[in-house]
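Q: Structure tokens for this one, please.
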Amino acid sequence: MKVRVQFYAQLRDLTGMRELDIELAEGATVRDLLENIYARQPALRPHDKSILIGAGVEFVDRDYKLKLGEEIAIMPPVQGG
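A: Here is the predicted structure, written as tokens:
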């Protein structure tokens, strides 16, 4: 199944891209997706513990099962001032 990943803020700067389409096996989780992304974009791996994952309008955890055609947002922690 194909999912679209969107990168935000400094994660966009690290990858040099706004979005990426990734093909995954049916039943794949966010954890599987992240491993695929880290293989392509190793500069993101050091941020693994702090990034937030959004599916649609909700934040999800790494065990969330992805759905066909879903758009996934990869974001740094929310910061305010």
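A few notes: Residues 29 and 64 are 5 Å apart (CA to CA). The chain has a mean pLDDT of 91.
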